[in-house]
What we know:
By secondary structure, the chain is α/β, with parallel strands linked by helices. The protein has 2 domains: 2-247, Rossmann fold; 298-379. It has 12 helices and 12 strands. The protein has helices spanning 9-16, 54-68, 121-133, 167-175, 186-194, 215-220, 223-247, 251-257, 298-314, 320-338, 342-358, 363-379; strands at 2-6, 19-26, 32-38, 44-49, 72-81, 91-99, 103-106, 109-112, 115-118, 149-156, 181-183, 201-209. It has a 5-stranded mixed barrel, surrounded by 4 helices. A two-stranded antiparallel ribbon has the order 7-8. A hairpin with a 5-residue loop joins β2 (19-26) and β3. The radius of gyration is 24 Å and the shape is elongated. The chain starts with a strand and ends with a helix. InterPro entries: Nucleoside_phosphorylase_d (IPR000845), Nucleoside_phosphorylase_sf (IPR035994). It holds the Pfam family PNP_UDP_1. GO terms for molecular function: adenosylhomocysteine nucleosidase activity; methylthioadenosine nucleosidase activity. Residues 2-238 form the Nucleoside phosphorylase domain.
Amino acid sequence: MIVILSALDLEYQAVRSHLTDLRVHRHAAGTRFELGCLAGDGQQLALGLVGKGNHPAAVITERAIAEFSPSALLFVGVAGALWPGIDLGDVVVATHVYAYHGGTSEDSGFKARPRVWEIDHETDQIARHLYRAETWTRRLPDGAAVPALRFGPIAAGEVVQDSTISAHAQWVRQTYNDALAIEMESAGVAQAAHHNRSLPMAVVRGISDRADGDKTATDGLNWQPRAASNAAAFAMALAQELIVEHKNRPASKAREANSMSDNVKNVARDNAQVGVQAGHIFGNVTVGHPPQSQAADPVAQLAELRDRLARARKAQDVDEDTFIAAQDEIAVAAESLSEKTEAGRGKAMIALKKLRGLLADVAELAAHVSAVITAIRSVL
């Protein structure tokens, strides 16, 4: 699965317009994502809104990665141009992301100490191929002018820059003079992707202003939605190519990329017997039947089930559609149990019975669902 994130509602809407069969996916902490299919392709994507700023962007990105275990991540939206030769509506694909606010303040002035993240080679190659082939332009709205597509660094800080003569603006242009555009979120997104085994990540920005003091005027001329639409068109074409690329990889290589399989095979010989088979073990371990005095906690068991489901998907024991449907039923069960009412427990039981049917082909997971059902019945 590919996850696509945006900071503003209009950016979100620009991406959303390319998706069909949308449905809400609720995160346990309250974040709402949408799952949808790429129009004309049928491949499923996850879409989320991070809000303004690098810090919230990093938090929501981390949440999306943990929830969906994506194969790649795209951040899509608008930005300000840093140089006069870049036109409104142009699309910038980041080769690097600068977190430009890092530094040290000394008597002689402010010395930059930026963090830098570079786009991974494979994603960069796919993006440049799309640029050469020009097939991505088919996703532009009918009658829309074809914008220029540019590759270069993007600077991400914590302020809205709308000047070319302020001390801050001059310092940015002097210190990061190869940056093409400036914005406020992609450093947080890049940081989260980096901390998740360097997850492939791309930043695609449409130019909506020139960061030169005329932002109010360009916003008034509706350059934000136009620039967001251009960025979304390229991003959706890139997402489609990434899905095809990952799908065509041999299954053996995909498993090797997971570093270590969760599957363990024990062989009993002669009079020996296998007592326990286990891969990676998380949480408490009980061999045999637990004492009757220890009542199982359904909420804790649901959390463990969510972890087991994610590992089963990673090991390719559960396909993508089943994984998503199962996550939805777990979310319904958890939310219903939190009501702490008889009606809530009843709704949780119905969701778990559906879940058990979904996971019937994976005996270990189906057994765990049955254990949760038993635990709920024990507290009725």
